[in-house]
Design brief:
This protein is α+β, with helices and mostly antiparallel strands. Helix content is about 35%, strand content about 25%. The protein starts with a helix and ends in a 10-residue tail after the last strand.
């Protein structure tokens, strides 16, 4: 398949978008920013690490590639706007390229994201797809990892653990949930759970220079974690704390705002702990012990 035939196929399926005066086809796309701070994120996914192409298909790989980037924009309570996509296709992989694009566009369209360009290549290796996503902060500004403070309450937007049983391929980025929360409370810090609950909370704590105590009984354990525990030899809570790729939001707010959320939250949330001066701790039935920030780490 000649590269430019594939590019022409992509362009024929890329509609005009109000934020994009010039889309694919020139040396650069042209975007029309609103004047608010620009958010930029990128994730690179590879066959064999982030998905197994032969098992799940290129459409699912494309959906995940877009969704994980949207989750990063959600983690800063931003509005996603446009994306560029770079792919290295297995040689002779036109069908893979087309199905990949379908999956990418399905998720992009769901969240109003324009796919404005990118690059394609082919090689003798496995599928590689890298999405770079642009977004805008709201009028309240981006939510960073560095704003947690002692006394904050720690919340999560949904159950965690066991995503390897299939949910890691079909994440639902919590873009809408983040924006609703940003409207009603002062979000001090936030992150999406990609590496694991304990690891990602530790990222917040390191940036914020404080600590936290998690309540073991309060952590919402996903049924997938319970099922996985039947064969893994690890308890469900260990999976909830360390498995990763749940793509729920983990955030901190003041105790006053936390109480408001428990009374009437615009989206489902669960209080799982509180921030303290230092350390990462797990309170299990009144016994407090240090909690290791276990989670996913890429070996380089």
């Amino acid at each position: 398949m000649p590269e430019f035939d594939y590019i022409a196929w992509l362009r024929s399926r890329t509609p005009a978008h109000p934020r994009v005066p010039v889309g694919p086809g020139d040396d650069c796309a042209v975007l029309a920013p609103s004047g608010r701070p620009l958010l930029v994120t990128t994730d690179l996914l590879t066959d064999g690490t982030d998905f197994i192409l032969a098992e799940v298909g290129a459409r699912a790989a494309g959906r995940k590639a877009m969704a994980v980037n949207l989750s990063d924009i959600a983690a800063m309570a931003g509005v996603p706007t446009a994306a560029v996509v770079a792919v290295a296709l297995p040689r002779g992989g036109r069908a893979v390229g087309e199905e990949l694009y379908v999956g990418i566009r399905e998720v992009a369209d769901e969240f109003g994201v324009a796919v404005v360009g990118g690059d394609t290549n082919s090689w003798d290796g496995a599928l590689v797809v890298a999405v770079t996503l642009f977004g805008e902060a709201t009028a309240r500004g981006p939510v960073l990892r560095s704003g947690a403070r002692p006394g904050d309450w720690v919340f999560v937007t949904g159950p965690v653990g066991g995503s390897i049983r299939g949910r890691h391929l079909t994440p639902t980025p919590r873009v809408r949930e983040a924006l609703r929360l940003h409207e009603v409370v002062g979000l001090h810090s936030m992150i999406d759970i990609s590496d694991g609950l304990a690891a990602d909370l530790n990222h917040i704590l390191e940036e914020s220079r404080c600590g936290a105590v998690l309540d073991a009984a309060a952590i919402p354990v996903h049924p997938d974690a319970v099922e996985l525990a039947r064969t893994s030899g690890r308890p469900p809570l260990a999976h909830a704390l360390g498995d990763g790729e749940d793509f729920e939001l983990l955030f901190t707010v003041s105790a006053a705002d936390g109480a408001r959320l428990l009374g009437a939250s615009p989206v489902p949330v669960v209080k799982i702990g509180e921030c303290v001066d230092a350390g990462l701790w797990l309170d299990d039935g009144g016994r407090r012990r240090p909690l290791a920030p276990t989670g996913w780490v890429h070996d380089l």
